[in-house]
Hints:
By secondary structure, the chain is α/β, with parallel strands linked by helices. It is built from 19 helices and ten strands. Helix 15 (470-484) packs parallel to helix 16. The model has no long low-confidence stretch (mean pLDDT 80).
Amino acid sequence: xxxxxxxxxxxxxxxxxxxxxxxxxxxxxxxxxxxxxxxxxxxxxxxxxxxxxxxxxxxxxxxxxxxxxxxxxxxxxxxxxxxxxxxxxxxxxxxxxxxxxxxxxxxxxxxxxxxxxxxxxxxxxxxxxxxxxxxxxxxxxxxxxxxxxxxxxxxxxxxxxxxxxxxxxxxxxxxxxxxxxxxxxxxxxxxxxxxxxxxxxxxxxxxxxxxxxxxxxxxxxxxxxxxxxxxxxxxxxxxxxxxxxxxxxxxxxxxxxxxxxxxxxxxxxxxxxxxxxxxxxxxxxxxxxxxxxxxxxxxxxxxxxxxxxxxxxxxxxxxxxxxxxxxxxxxxxxxxxxxxxxxxxxxxxxxxxxxxxxxxxxxxxxxxxxxxxxxxxxxxxxxxxxxxxxxxxxxxxxxxxxxxxxxxxxxxxxxxxxxxxxxxxxxxxxxxxxxxxxxxxxxxxxxxxxxxxxxxxxxxxxxxxxxxxxxxxxxxxxxxxxxxxxxxxxxxxxxxxxxxxxxxxxxxxxxxxxxxxxxxxxxxxxxxxxxxxxxxxxxxxxxxxxxxxxxxxxxxxxxxxxxxxxxxxxxxxx
Length: 574
């Protein structure tokens, strides 16, 4: 019930629309009742009066037209409310997703989150647009028709009431089944979206390794699971409909049998029986629709559980202090980091200090924790133990905006958006002028290739910058960092995937970017590592060596082994 109450809370801003819709639903129910009520005089009193028959027939035509208009307005208003509510729910989900900490995303596929935002919300929209409408209209119609039945013949109405509870037992039984099936259905849709998202995003790799059949088979398997659950859901709903029809048939047959007996003994007129029968027959229609609405509500509950799970996640914790530009230095103080979901230790008891303007290189074997260590500086992750300070201020105590305004990141995995070159460079600097954007592009050695594009800075670069080469993407990212102009810079293997020609150009752009900034370079180009003021060597999650290039080579430790195995082949390029 809690989920339903929360869903209803989203309806509050639109109470006036719902109030108008309710008036029209009352009208629809009243007209349906009137249509059954006026059957009696037509049958009993005016069968030989042609003029009155015509009047009653015109009245019935007006009933149908009016009921259609009332139903149209009510349905349109309720579907409008449903669309508005789902729009608001999606906005709230997306707002929450954007504010969640990075560790929330570590073990959650993006496809699953996309499914919750799109598919689960679609389920809610269908429920709020259709099920709520049926509950309003059919519930009121049920009351009106039952009242008419009691007025016409109370003993027959009691007989109908004996049958009706069996219909509601069917509604309850199959509603519970539908809730379980709906939960599995939404989970399986998430599985389909996850598989689809991974395959599309990794299509180049799939084709490179000729794994098309494998991915087709995996998608087919997920699709078969969804099909099985969907068929089970369809079978359950049709069983429900079948039982409703059986109960309705038995009920109406019993009522007609007893009704004709009353007509024969002159305790009821034929017009009263037909009027009563029409009311009872129409009573079973709203019952059946209420059963369908209940099944839909159970689906909504399953979808709501998944949606509210996201909305209820705790957002990224915020500090209250405003961090000024760095003046003194950065300190990592006994920092340890353990992934909370797996209890895997990534960084253990790491301490070092960086002065303002220093270039610090961080090297180590794959999996040593280099990127994770740097991810804690912009507070993507928080230390499990220890702390990080900038000018003596714990970064946990400052606002994320003031902290991240001071930090620029250029990584191997460049994130670009399906927008113009200009928009991508100005990302994060909405107030940037065209002159500033072009200046940053020139400093990043990107201006020339941008101007060669069909629309220059207004060229759409495609999702993830797919229309650019690797070196061009890197230079756009460097231009973006230059425009931001942060005092602290993190370079995370920013040229590792480039060819030699592109690397030379990008390296020049990086040198422009690093000028007069406190810079952290993760396992980067040899020339940058050698030029660093100090090199931190990570091994088994700890700092095992620290010093300048020459010192560490003379020391003959892990750094020298890394240098010989990974970097020595690049000496001729330095």
